[in-house]
Amino acid sequence: MPFRWIYSKLMFVLGGLFAPMEMYPASVARLARALPFNYMLYAPARLFVRYDTALFWNTIAMQTGWIAVMGGVDFWPLRLGGEADQCQRWIGGRLGRRRGQAG
């Protein structure tokens, strides 16, 4: 629960919902543009209001890059730790016990 709360607050502030990116100090705006929150919320909304071809392609490139980074982070433990079957059995066992089934 605390992680979700922190994540939502980061998205609210660094995603441009609190204030437009142009209103942030240069250092905060630079940080916000380096993180994925800006490309999930602010950039698509700005494109809807005021279309800019360069911003469109920059947004697509950054979203694709962040998908690749997060995909690598997601699959990295599987490559290091073993086979996917092991992970699925472990997760399935945990879920089965949580539902009251034998695992």
Can you lay out the helices and strands and say which pair or pack?
Layout: H1 2-14, H2 26-34, H3 36-49, H4 53-81, H5 84-98
Helix pairs in contact: 3-4
What does this structure look like?
With 103 residues, the chain is an all-alpha fold. The protein has one domain (2-98). Helices cover 78% and strands 0% of the residues. Helix 3 packs antiparallel against helix 4. The longest helix is centred in the middle third of the chain and has 29 residues, at 53-81. The chain is globular.
Keywords:
globular, mainly alpha, 5 helices, 103 residues, 78% helix
Give the helix level as a range of percent.
over 70%
Sheet bearing the most strands, described?
none
Instruction: Indicate the structural class.
Output: mainly alpha
Approximately what portion of the residues adopt beta-strand conformation?
under 5%
Mean pLDDT: 82
- How far is the N terminus from the C terminus? 26 Å
Q: Give start-end ranges of low-pLDDT stretches.
A: none
Radius of gyration: 19 Å
In a nutshell, what does this entry contain?
The chain has helices spanning 2-14, 26-34, 36-49, 53-81, 84-98. By secondary structure, it is an all-alpha fold.
